[in-house]
Amino acid sequence: MSTLTEVASGYQAGRTLPVRVELVRQLKRRRTIVMGGILAALPFVLLIAFAIGGEPGGRNNQVTLMDTATASAGNFAAVNLFVSAGFLLVIPVALFCGDTVASEAGWSSLRYLLAAPVPRARLLWSKLVVGLTLSLAAMILLPVVALAVGTAAYGWGPLELPTGGTLDSGTAAQRLVVVVGFIFVSQLVTAGLAFWLSTKTDAALGAVGGAVGLTIIGNVLDAVTALGDWRDFLPAHWQFAWADAVQPDPEWAGMLQGTAVSVTYALVLFALAFRGFARKDIVS
Questions:
Q1: In 3-state terms, what secondary structure has residue 67?
Q2: Does pTM top 0.85 for this prediction?
Q3: How many CB atoms lie under 10 A from the CB of residue 248?
Q4: 187 burial via Cβ count (<10 Å: 0-12, 13-18, 19+)
Q5: CA distance 238 to 262
Q6: CB 68 within 8 A of CB 160
Q7: Is 246 buried (19+), middle (13-18) or exposed (0-12) by CB count in 10 A?
Q8: Cβ 202 vs Cβ 102: under 8 Å
């Protein structure tokens, strides 16, 4: 027995919902513009804080990364990443990856997209690529604006290290690229959580809030020293491993372990999202 499948003339599943179309749709949304504005404003907020409070000084004769914030544009950018990596940068990742599918369901437009017809895997793939792209753009935007603001305020010079010594401007720029890349990879777990929850609920706020909440719980568990070596399996345990790259002789072991943990969790969560959405009854 043969099965006859009729396909409309010119229809190609791979051409439905192109990534560029989805990207333009998401870029035009108010939450994207607002989030970009918040991240771009952070360097100016820190600049004003340093201007009002004076240059940071060492505590108990110990120099930290924060204490070198006004030494150069590179130091200022590194401090911006340091103060935002733990929480602020979690929000755009959760927002861009958690709002993407759930918002369509909330608007009752998801079923119409699938009726276009857009294959379910194709729809998820387009939305995931765009969500991750916007998340990476958010992480690039912050240090780029910080470098521009820092150059105007403190000048372009070598990166002063808290442990002593300096990195020339070229090397510092390369290390900052590595730092941004690692922060992005470390946030893949949040992206996976948000994306998976987005396929489970029609409430975008629930997906975004759930991902942020679970990420915070991970940070809290990492602070429980009684867990011992079990903390090595928590993505939050490695979120500041990028500090090892801002050294005269960088160490990569911590970042490699953090990358392995984050990517493993993320792949499992993305797979759960695709598997669950493929079997889900879409009623909204």
A1: helix
A2: yes
A3: 11
A4: buried
A5: 9
A6: yes
A7: buried
A8: yes
Element (H, E) at 38: helix 30-53
Q: What's the CA gap between 23 and 127, in Å, rounded?
A: 8
Q: And the tokens for 230?
A: 């079990």
Q: What is the pLDDT of residues 179-207, one digit of tens each?
A: 999 999 999 999 999 999 999 888 888 99
- How high is the pLDDT of residue 265? 96
For the record, the structure tokens of 280 come out as: 């889900």
Contact (CB, 8 A) for 149 and 52 = no
Side chain identity, residue 83: V
Please tell me the total number of residues recorded for the chain in this structure: 284
| Amino acid (1-letter code) at residue 102 | A
What 3 state SS string does 211-242 have?
A: HHHHHHHHHHHHCCHHHHHHHHHCHHHHCCHH
- Measure the CA–CA gap between 264 and 266, rounded to whole angstroms: 5
Residue whose token pair is 């706020």 = 205
- Tell me, rounded to whole angstroms, the distance of Cα 29 from its chain centroid: 18
Given a contact cutoff of 8 angstroms between Cβ atoms, the answer to whether 105 and 284 are in contact is yes
Element housing 272 (H / E): helix 253-279
